[in-house]
Design brief:
Helices cover 67% and strands 1% of the residues. It is built from 19 helices and 2 strands. The radius of gyration is 22 Å and the shape is globular.
């Protein structure tokens, strides 16, 4: 506790004991919340299938064992599922057969990889087999396990299925935005990003290209976001007195809201805009007035959901000790580098701060809606995000006419969001309040 702020050290910790079924109150609320999101996700999956049948947002991808696991972010989620089975604390025989089955699955996938892949490429795509075996183990424990293990296994199985479905439903939403908005505002965003006298994405690209180790670390943190989500969830379940909201609700809610916001300011990113120059540079000059373009690629820039998600996880674990806090800040820094390296605009990252703040307030279940800190965080987050996006889209000439004011406003948005989140956490963690649904 010595690494926590003084105001939090003075707070009386909330440490409820387990309920008769072996679950803690935090676990019970978390599993119920996960089930709610899973039902919503299944409904969206049905909607996506119907929409694709009518030609809206069609996803041209098909599953194949030879390419399964090439998406490192998906692999990361399956590694998180594997960790879920370990948290059941079953007998070593149960753990051993899941590990053995997972390694068998990994060996099968290993044999299907392209023959020219090196050892590093093959190791990076591991995870799908271990996670699949763990999901099967969770399903068996949910039916055949002891009463206490059975309850917990069902909860983690819900989370596992949610993580398996989430990428597919969100992928459809990406392409639906493309259908709704064939034109993008990339040149407008490029002009705003250059108000500082340089292009942040090209500067970061040149930096990381000169340091392979730094680039590898940045991309590793970026691709391991789902695994970081699982770790944050585990910490919040183990230390409910230091977390003031439902992490899974904040994470999933921002994912759904992001696709709605992508319709307000659709952009594809610098990789699509300048494929020959990015990321090494130099940044191409643009002297003419910006105009709308019809570009391929998903609309996943404004705001940056990846940055929003890592902020959500950081806020969730920030009060859990100095080492956890420092690790979270390192993850944020690497996410900034990797997100810019992959073609996002700096203003995408700025917009992530009020978006994350808004969902911290929406899911702050330890505070009533009458709390000034919660209302101020919500109205402040939504207000800053709305003004920022509206200004960029409909008042672009004013934004670029005052570079100093625009850059100052961006810094003000980040600092204000951090300040309001600190006040929200301080109010929520000031006393022993049990979590609510």
């Amino acid at each position: 506790m010595s690494g926590l702020p003084r105001w939090l050290r003075r707070a009386q910790p909330f440490r409820p004991g387990p309920l008769p079924d072996g679950l803690s109150p935090a676990e019970r609320v978390f599993f119920r919340t996960s089930l709610t999101w899973l039902i919503l996700l299944v409904a969206l999956g049905v909607v996506s299938q119907v929409a694709q049948h009518w030609g809206l947002g069609r996803v041209e991808s098909h599953f194949s064992l030879s390419t399964a696991g090439f998406d490192l972010i998906t692999n990361s989620g399956f590694l998180g599922i594997f960790l879920c089975y370990g948290r059941l604390r079953t007998e070593w025989r149960d753990q051993a057969w899941v590990v053995a089955l997972g390694l068998l699955f990994e060996a099968i996938l290993w044999s299907l990889r392209p023959p020219n892949w090196n050892l590093a490429d093959r190791l990076l795509t591991m995870g799908l087999g271990l996670g699949s075996a763990a999901a099967l183990g969770l399903a068996m424990q949910a039916v055949l396990g002891s009463p206490q293990v059975r309850k917990r296994a069902r909860g983690y199985l819900i989370l596992a299925v949610f993580m398996m479905l989430f990428p597919h439903v969100t992928l459809w939403a990406h392409f639906a935005v493309v259908d709704w908005n064939p034109q993008v505002y990339d040149l407008f965003a490029y002009q705003v990003d250059g108000l500082a006298g340089f292009q942040p994405s090209f500067a970061v690209g040149a930096l990381l290209e000169r340091s392979p180790l730094l680039l590898s670390l940045a991309m590793l943190v970026y691709n391991e976001l789902p695994l970081l989500l699982f770790l944050a969830l585990f910490l919040s379940l183990d230390h409910p007195e230091r977390t003031y909201n439902q992490v899974i609700s904040s994470f999933a809610g921002m994912g759904l809201a992001g696709f709605l916001l992508y319709n307000l300011y659709p952009a594809s990113g610098l990789v699509i805009l300048f494929p020959e120059n990015f990321p090494q540079g130099p940044a191409p000059p643009w002297d003419g007035p910006p105009h709308l373009l019809e570009l391929p690629g998903t609309r996943n820039c404004m705001p940056s959901l990846h940055m929003s998600w890592i902020l959500c996880l950081t806020f969730a674990v920030f009060r859990m000790g100095r080492r956890v806090r420092m690790a979270a800040l390192v993850a944020v820094c690497f996410t900034v580098l990797s997100t810019l390296y992959l073609g996002h605009y700096w203003i995408d990252l700025v917009a992530a701060f009020p978006l994350a703040l808004s969902f911290q307030a929406l899911t702050a279940n330890r505070l009533s809606w009458k709390s000034p800190a919660r209302r101020q965080a919500l109205t402040g987050g939504l207000g800053m995000l709305g003004v920022f996006l509206v200004s960029l889209r409909w008042f672009h000439p004013w934004v670029v006419a005052c570079p100093g004011l625009t850059l100052g406003a961006q810094a003000g948005i980040i600092l204000t969001a951090l300040f309001l989140e600190h006040r929200l956490a301080r109010a929520a963690l000031a006393g022993p309040q049990p979590p609510q649904t």
